[in-house]
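Pasting as-is:
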Amino acid sequence: MMAIPKKLAPSSPVRNCIRRVIRESFRAAVLAPAKVMASGLPSWAIRIQMVKLPQDATAPSVESNGRKVRPFARRPTNGALKRVVRAEIDALMHRVLARVA
């Protein structure tokens, strides 16, 4: 189960992209090794909740009129966002599997 709040990512395509990356990482980390193992792994129930959207360090944090730029407007491009989220979720899945194994 995944939770990507609308407050963090108001755009549906971006939320769906993040969900897709998380599902791919989960399948690669958990489901693929389970097919190879004879006994398999027990049923899993993992809840992943996004608490902060990755920010582009090169994007300006203040508009020309002095107002702060919203975090969603400072997100990296979709390709870079996918890479950042995939790296973080792969590290998380690695830590989960290390504790289980």
